[in-house]
């Protein structure tokens, strides 16, 4: 496998991927919103490598926003059905739903900006919360570009990244730093969720 991973072979794969057309690229990022096991990171890099930074970014952005919003609408409409009830009954999801109802736009925006956030969970929480549809669409529209652009930038100059040991190291470090920052912010948000819910519970008891 490692012997096969030459720059020429990677570029051949990218060219074959490009032949599938831009609609396939949009469809893959769209589909990832419903099937979280699909590697969004790799799909976005492939789009940028095939179509360049601008078009690769745009295709990935359109696909992931459309997919995320449709998933959100499905949860909003069918969230009480048994197929989605298991998601709603998870303790962490319940806490996040309450917190989103309290804080609204901000926690969703922060979570959606992070590349490794489980987007299915975020979309589910938003769909089960009381946030208005137009506000969630706006949240997706302005938060997703940040995450998508960071990944697209790595994929837009794939030859340079793969042929330069320094750039490979820098790219790995950047990915790890982004992942670390994401996990750090998630921990902070989780602590704030716990704190806000405790304060609400105290207020209820004092009434």
UniProtKB/TrEMBL annotation:
The chain crosses the membrane at residues 20-46, 53-75, 108-128, 135-154, 166-185. It is a multi-pass membrane protein. Keywords: Cell membrane, Membrane, Transmembrane, Transmembrane helix. Pfam families: VTT_dom. InterPro entries: TMEM64, VTT_dom. Residues 39-156 form the VTT domain. It is found in: Cell membrane. Belongs to the TVP38/TMEM64 family. This is TVP38/TMEM64 family membrane protein. It comes from Solibacillus merdavium. The lineage of its organism: Bacteria, Bacillati, Bacillota, Bacilli, Bacillales.
């Amino acid at each position: 496998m490692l012997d096969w991973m030459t720059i020429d072979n990677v570029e051949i794969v990218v060219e074959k991927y490009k032949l599938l057309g831009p609609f396939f690229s949009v469809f893959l990022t769209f589909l990832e919103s419903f099937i979280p096991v699909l590697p969004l990171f790799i799909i976005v890099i492939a789009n940028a490598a095939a179509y360049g930074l601008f078009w690769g970014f745009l295709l990935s952005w359109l696909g992931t926003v459309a997919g995320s919003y449709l998933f959100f609408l499905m949860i909003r409409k069918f969230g009480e059905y048994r197929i989605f009830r298991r998601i709603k009954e998870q303790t962490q999801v319940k806490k996040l739903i309450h917190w989103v109802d309290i804080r609204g736009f901000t926690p969703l925006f922060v979570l959606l900006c992070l590349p490794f956030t489980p987007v299915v969970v975020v979309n589910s929480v938003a769909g089960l919360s009381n946030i208005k549809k137009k506000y969630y669409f706006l949240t997706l529209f302005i938060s997703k570009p940040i995450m998508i652009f960071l990944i697209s930038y790595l994929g837009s100059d794939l030859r340079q990244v793969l042929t330069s040991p320094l750039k490979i190291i820098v790219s790995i470090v950047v990915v790890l730093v982004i992942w670390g920052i994401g996990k750090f912010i998630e921990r902070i948000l989780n602590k704030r969720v716990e704190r806000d819910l405790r304060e609400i519970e105290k207020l209820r008891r004092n009434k």
